[in-house]
Design brief:
The chain has 432 residues and is α/β, with parallel strands linked by helices. It has helices at 50-55, 122-134, 154-164, 176-180, 184-191, 205-212, 217-230, 249-258, 287-297, 346-357, 370-379, 397-400, 417-420, and strands spanning 2-10, 17-25, 28-35, 39-46, 92-96, 140-144, 169-173, 195-199, 233-237, 239-240, 263-270, 318-325, 331-333, 381-387, 405-409, 413-416. Strands 5, 6, 7, 8, 9, 10, 11, 12, 13, 14, 15 and 16 form a twelve-stranded mixed sheet that branches. Strands 1-2-3-4 form a four-stranded antiparallel sheet, with no helix packed on it. The model is unreliable at 338-342 (pLDDT under 50).
């Protein structure tokens, strides 16, 4: 075992802050830590040797100025909001508009539907929006939950956010209401919705029954058709579980390509163990595993070497590549700056996400002009990305401090996603 980097983490049982280190072993890179009460933990974080791990390091390490940042009292990860120790000001901010849900997914990181409380009022949401603007906004705003479409006033919430100065709005949804309610997608589009982040784990209802508790494939396909009619861009968001749907990665990529330009990309989320999702933690998917699977299951049309780590966020949190899909179906790798989530600053990342994930535009420019060429390129660009969220086993505070996906909360302010959703090994939350 070779120790080559020191960091901090938490105990999976009591969430006490611990010294930790990265160590190279024959199977790859492991995060090691020891709690004096609950014992020693070793979590697989990278398949490959130290050289391949360090070669993945990319991007901007320069610290942002954090608007409204306060000095920490307890220290990371206990009093985020953001604090002055944080490195990134933020790209996407989740605004949770409800804790209710019309599903009860076994893998819900937010444990949606278990808390009995009223939805936040529009007045409360407006106050949160004001806070976000004061602290570096306008961010890319993700309407989330729970399932946000169980509220009937989403168009009014979108109008409120626009009046506060926000420009890009993403709906994080299971797609059921989009599929079932005629004209609902058009109503959201008219209110200002930019794109739909659609839960889409599989092309098999056998898998849907395991991950979501019921067959949903027909609903998902109907939701995509509804977004197509409304002119809303769709990003497919598969949770990938080892031994369950990790053999469907290539099928999902091919489905996305066939569903362009309505489908703008695929954003993989390998399973992390928080909220209701508490299976044995040794079932890990790493970035190298995902890249090998993409290359193998795409039959080499997408190569592992095409992908890079994040530029603004910590590179060990994500991977990305973007492809121009030609008329004959062949793929051309685009330079990193044209892809999704690839900016080296929070502001550039906001712009990149909004540009790629918004619905396909209709060319109004004269054929052959630069404007028409740019729009046509965007319409035929497929962004492939992934985010590996941290849990109580693999939490690395060096990674967390570069997080730019945040949760808005009236009690705490703006909390990094992986801190806000962190639960101990029994499911008890640090922030929620």
């Amino acid at each position: 075992m070779l120790i080559f980097e020191r960091t901090e983490s938490v105990c999976p049982v009591c969430l006490k802050k611990l010294s930790a280190y990265l160590a190279e072993k024959p199977k790859g890179i492991f995060l090691q830590k020891t709690c004096q009460v609950h014992g020693r933990y070793s979590t697989w974080v990278w398949e490959g040797d130290r050289t391949s791990y360090l070669a993945w390091e990319t991007g901007n390490k320069k610290k942002d100025s954090i608007p409204g940042g306060r000095a920490p009292e307890k220290g990371c990860p206990y009093d985020c909001g953001l604090c002055t120790e944080h490195v990134r000001e933020g790209c996407c901010v989740l605004l949770e508009v409800t804790h209710r849900c019309n599903l009860h997914c076994p893998v819900c990181f937010a444990s949606a539907g278990e808390r009995v409380e009223a939805d936040p009022t529009q007045e409360k949401l407006g106050q949160l929006m004001d806070l976000l603007m004061e602290r570096g906004g306008p961010f890319n705003l993700q309407l989330s939950g729970g399932e946000p479409t169980v509220r009937d006033d989403l168009p009014e919430i979108l109008a409120l956010a626009k009046s506060k100065g926000f420009h890009y709005f993403q709906l994080n949804t299971n797609g059921i209401r989009l599929a079932e309610e005629k004209g609902y997608a058009e109503k959201l589009k008219m209110a200002g919705l930019s794109s739909v982040f659609l839960q889409f784990d599989t092309l098999s209802d056998k898998v849907n029954r395991v991950l979501r508790g019921r067959p949903l494939l027909m609903k998902k396909l109907a939701a995509i058709r509804a977004c197509e009619r409304a002119g809303l861009g769709v990003v497919l968001v598969p949770v990938i579980v080892p031994g369950l749907n990790d053999n469907e990665i290539g099928d999902l990529l091919r489905f996305a390509q066939k569903s362009m330009p309505t489908v703008r990309g695929v954003h993989f989320q390998p399973i992390s163990y928080f909220g209701r999702c508490l299976p044995p933690e040794d079932r890990r998917i790493t970035i190298p595993f995902m890249l090998r699977a993409i290359q193998k299951q795409s039959h080499g049309r997408m190569k592992a070497s095409d992908f890079k780590g994040g530029g603004a966020e910590n590179p060990y949190c994500s991977f990305k590549a973007s492809y121009l899909v030609k008329a004959d179906g062949k793929l051309q790798l685009l330079k990193a700056e044209n892809g999704c989530c690839c900016g080296t600053t929070s502001q550039k990342s906001r712009e990149s996400v909004a540009r790629q994930w918004t619905g396909a535009g209709k060319n109004k420019a004269e054929p052959g002009t630069m404007d028409a060429l740019i729009q046509d390129t965007l319409n035929h660009t497929l962004a492939i990305s992934g985010m590996l969220f941290q849990d109580c086993y693999n939490l690395d505070l060096n990674r967390l401090k570069r997080c730019y996906i945040l949760e808005a909360d009236e009690r705490y302010g703006m909390v990094p996603f992986c801190a806000y959703n962190l639960t101990d090994s029994g499911g008890e939350s640090l922030y929620r």
